[in-house]
Amino acid sequence: MKQLIFHACLLMLLGFTQCSKEHAPAAMVNPIVIDPILDSPKTFLALGDSYTIGQSVTAAERFPAQTVALLRNAGINMGDPKYIATTGWTTDNLMASINSQQLSGPYNVVSLLIGVNDQYQRHDTTGYRERFRNLLLRSIDLAGRRSDRVFVLSIPDYSVTPFAGFSDTASIRRQIGWFNDINKDETVKALCNYLYITASTREALLDPTLIAADGLHPSGKEYAKWAAWLAPMMTTVLR
Known about the structure:
The protein is an alpha/beta fold. A five-stranded parallel β-sheet has the order 2-1-3-4-5, sandwiched between helices. Helix 4 crosses helix 10 and helix 5 packs parallel to helix 7.
């Protein structure tokens, strides 16, 4: 009798154990978790004027587009750049356009290149400092309040282009220097990244292939140089 009771209990215990194995809760299994936010394409907001929108070159030759192509080649999942830029824009025009749009930030990286039309139309360095500072603060907000995700490019020197051939090129070069001193100073204070491309644009004086067909703006070849410098800088915050 005792043996029968022992065998019955043993069978019940084995059955319970087998049942427990078959109906083990899902929490006991280590699931593979995919974060859709982390795996989604990185976002790039490009702010500026004709130099950002790539006047007189194809969309693929713009420096933001070429930068994205390099980042993708480096294995970074990048979406297409979003542009807020138009030929002829001053700092005021750019800020007005930003404020008029419902931007779905934060963006992973933001580039800012603005000021040539402030120099060309106004020659107003004092006002430029305040307007540029406000744009820089807005850019930081759009980058999720991450100053390290904002990349400022200096203003190109168009004094070397055919467009400026009958102008006071020495004065243009000097004024471009003043405006770049301001945007660099404000960028450093805000702890953002600064890329000085002005010296590169002056190489167009001896190499006309660095100028677009309109005789004023950079060619895709010149923009490729900017992208080659900018992509590694952006990689540090995109990895």
